[in-house]
Amino acid sequence: MVGIKRIWNKGLLYKGFKIVPYCPRCGTPLSSHEVAQGYKDVKERSAIAKFPVKGEDAYILAWTTTPWTLPSNVALCVNPDETYVKVKMKEDGTVYYMAQALCDTVLGEGTYDVLETFVGKDLEYKEYEPLFDYAVATCEKQHKKAFYIVCDNYVTLTDGTGVVHIAPAFGEDDSKVGRKYDLPFVQLVDGKGEMTKETPWAGMFCKKADPEVLKALRESGLLFSAPVFEHSYPHCWRCDTPLIYYARESWFIKMTAVKDDLIRNNNTINWIPESIGKGRFGDWLENVQDWGVSRNRYWGTPLNIWECECGCQHAIGSQAELKSMSRTTRNVVKKYDKEMDQEANGEVELHRPFIDDVTITCRSAANRCTVYRRLSTAGLIPVPCHLHSIIIHLKIKNCLSSSSRQISSPRRLIRRVDGSTPC
Fold this sequence. Notes:
Largest sheet: 6 strands, mixed
Mean pLDDT: 83
Low-confidence stretches: 370-423
């Protein structure tokens, strides 16, 4: 509780999205061990879609194995170091952009003329028109630029066209690229795995929407091909439902903000053997990512962040602070007197369901927001011993920035369960 409070005060704790393997029928994320139990070999149709280039009579050919994610598309991604070409088809004069190494496979040998050659980086920020307009309103509402080419080395030339479509809500690589370029977050699939009302397929399970998406693309002339491919796909080991990689709200510690300090402190440590600190651990620090500390679980230690309906937030750092800012703790203790751990000694036990009922009020709260209840469940993230060692050896508390975070106006707050924190 104290640690999270200090990190919060330094402005290094924020709410974002974490991609998880998710069963829409059970409504729960699955661990990597659970995912490993349910792989099946399946044959499905992929899509090579034709994205119209803005200001040109040309198309960018992009491949996806999940056509149902195309309505949520916000960008296209190329490998910055690979060679791409602009070609003109001999038969009908159609112009395409794609990776040079895959042209013969996709277009056919001898069926095209090369007009221009590029390195992937040259195509960065090139704009295109979206296949569908379902995501446009969401992008505009978020005031973020969308529908342009981005670059990342995860794109390979083993399959497809060397161009992949980006939907940050539905894949770890997509999410990483989305954060890198500050892309809009568009999620046109709900928690039940069904297409949302923004699309013509509202209520349809997303995997079953693949044929409908392909049909819509074909009718609009934006489907180049829909090749069948066979691959291993994860299914829920409980109910056999196909899993989807789905973005869930999560809380993160901004490790990237203190990366330089972490590396500098690591270099002062006498590692034995030296190869651990300079090699494996050093490489990990060089590529450190923001640390997702929350989990969507009922059990575990709740995250000590309270939030009102207007979005104002506050972190509680101790039982004493909670008691001083809340007018409800006494009633909560009375309500759950028989259920709470007797070792709590008259204090609110900091677990569900007891903490759910505790609301807090800022000391200067002249204006009151309407109180509301938890929006989702939370759980404990386990903290392995090596992470404790990171905190100790790298003196992470000294790496935290000196910025502070304050509530800008008096509010009445209620705890919101969006995640959990280490014990």
